[in-house]
Amino acid sequence: MFATRPEIRPATVEVLVDGQPCRVPEGASAAAALLLAGLPASRETPVSGAPRLPYCMMGVCFDCLAKIDGVANRQACMVTVRPGMRIAPQRGARMAGVA
Amino acid sequence: MNSENHDALVVGGGLVGAAIAYGLQRQGLRTLLLDEGDVAFRASRGNFGLVWVQSKGLGAPHYQRWTRGSAEEWPSLAAELQERTGIGTGLHQPGGVHICLSGEEFEKRGDYMARLQREAGNLGMEYRMIPGAEARDMLPGLGPKVAGVSWTPYDGHASPLYLLRALHTAFTGLGGRYQPNARVERSTAAPQDFSVEAGGIRHRAPRVVLAAGLGNADLAPRFGLSAPVRPERGQILVTERARQVLPMPTTTIRQTEEGSLMLGDSKEDAGFDLGQNPEIMRQIARRAVLSFPWIAELNLVRAWSALRVMAPDGLPIYDQSERFPGAFTANCHSGVTLAGTHANRLAPMIAAGALEPEMAPFTARRFDVRHAA
């Protein structure tokens, strides 16, 4: 559904979205990577389990929550991609790190 | 100006007013609930959500009984609201603990609980002082700094916002009239005959109940009552939602039904300032992390402050006007805990026209200077 704009970008970086390699423009957000990867949903809400994708792309709506490099519930639209970044769907509420 | 007649007027659309209005309407009184609007301080929107027994009423056995009574009424109130409105209030009463972070705190708490039990008299009060090692088996991830906890089976928690919505929905569902943006302007008082102007309408009724939170301080004298309440600020921090881990609430930490952790609760004299303050927020967070170190990993997503409605001695004020029978006032800082007694015990007394003798110790006359003999 989503594609990058046609302008020539100088470089791309490779990230892993839900375990699959995905090339995204340098400087893009992890939320952009989630959209480009074409997942049907990148999170499920904690209470009702409703499927969601990134929405506002500006740090407001929290619908882009994802597990990034092992850290749960990060706002993916506020995180710039780095090579090899692991971006995984956030399924429901995060675990609290109870020992 | 248009004029309307009712059986009862309730001033204040928060948890206290809504619980009483619901109780009155359920008794068959045609009740009008007047709500000032979002310019009011809205303590009910900032409530922490405990249905709490174990820290209430030392030196005031009548308050201890009233609070315990409310915890007992809560399950039937919650079930009834669910039945009438389909709105769940998130009530859980699995018991609760107060966490002590040092041996000294634990010892003091032990004395406190023992005194509370003595004052409970025939009512009895079951509690246990549980040392750290045993408490760590009971509460997952309880920190090594915790010296121990006090536990009672009576404590619990609920969602203040769902409760408020359920009370309003149940009240209007029974035919009660809710009038928002209706600050009380002029009013008149005579025995069993009251009128208030609010929202451009003059309302008359033989009963009036003042449940306007901090607004009661100014309103009460107009009805032959006194409500010397002052604000006490409390700040709350809220984390992102996490999988359910806490099996029971504590005095200052609870996990909501949806998974958020709520961290409280400061007690500040800040006048009517609804602001927040980093130093207090840091103290709240530090104490929460000492209690449960894993909370440090969670992101905070919201924080707010609200103003408790406090009488000079910290206890509720329930009163009836001697000069103008039919006028009542209800003031407290525990709108969630006391919703059970407000709806199920206080409202029937008001409907019947007089507070029961058991309510006498709650009168505001306790603040009057006593005349020397």
What descriptive keywords fit this protein?
heterodimer, A: mainly beta, Ubiquitin-like (UB roll), B: 373 residues, alpha/beta, FAD/NAD(P)-binding domain, D-Amino Acid Oxidase, Chain A, domain 2, 3 domains, 6-stranded mixed sheet, globular, oxidoreductase activity (chain B), oxidoreductase (chain B), FAD-dependent oxidoreductase (chain B), FAD/NAD-bd_sf (chain B)
Secondary-structure map:
The complex is a heterodimer of chains A (99) and B (373).
Chain A (H helix, E strand, L loop, with lengths): L11 E6 L2 E6 L4 H7 L6 E2 L6 E2 L12 E4 L2 E5 L10 E6 L8
Parallel strand pairs in A: 1-7, 3-7
Antiparallel strand pairs in A: 1-2, 3-4, 5-6, 5-7
Chain B lengths: L1 E4 L2 E4 L3 H12 L4 E4 L15 E2 L9 H25 L10 E5 L2 H18 L7 E4 H7 L9 E5 L3 E2 L2 H14 L3 E3 L4 E7 L2 E6 L2 E5 L2 E3 L5 H4 L10 E12 L11 E3 L4 E4 L14 H14 L8 E11 L6 E4 L6 E5 L7 H14 L21
Parallel strand pairs in B: 1-12, 2-3, 2-13, 3-9, 13-19
Antiparallel strand pairs in B: 4-8, 5-7, 6-7, 10-11, 11-12, 14-16, 14-17, 15-16, 18-19
Organism (chain A): Teichococcus aestuarii
Protein name (chain A): Sarcosine oxidase subunit alpha
GO molecular function, one term (chain A): iron-sulfur cluster binding
In short, what is this structure?
The complex is a heterodimer of chains A (99) and B (373). Chain A is mainly beta and 99 residues long.
Can you walk me through this structure?
The complex is a heterodimer of chains A (99) and B (373). Chain A has one domain (15-91): Ubiquitin-like (UB roll) (Roll). In chain A, 7% of the residues lie in helices and 31% in strands. Chain A is built from one helix and seven strands, in the order E-E-H-E-E-E-E-E. Chain A has one helix at residues 30-36, and strands at 12-17, 20-25, 43-44, 51-52, 65-68, 71-75, 86-91. In chain A, strands 1, 2, 3, 4, 5, 6 and 7 form a seven-stranded mixed β-sheet that branches. The model of chain A has no long low-confidence stretch (mean pLDDT 92). A six-stranded mixed β-sheet of chain B has the order 9-3-2-13-19-18, with helices on one face. A four-stranded mixed β-sheet of chain B has the order 1-12-11-10, with no helix packed on it. Chain B has a four-stranded antiparallel β-sheet with strand order 15-16-14-17. Chain B has helices at residues 15-26, 61-85, 103-120, 132-138, 160-173, 216-219, 278-291, 339-352, and strands at residues 2-5, 8-11, 31-34, 50-51, 96-100, 128-131, 148-152, 156-157, 177-179, 184-190, 193-198, 201-205, 208-210, 230-241, 253-255, 260-263, 300-310, 317-320, 327-331. At the A-B interface, loops of A face loops of B.
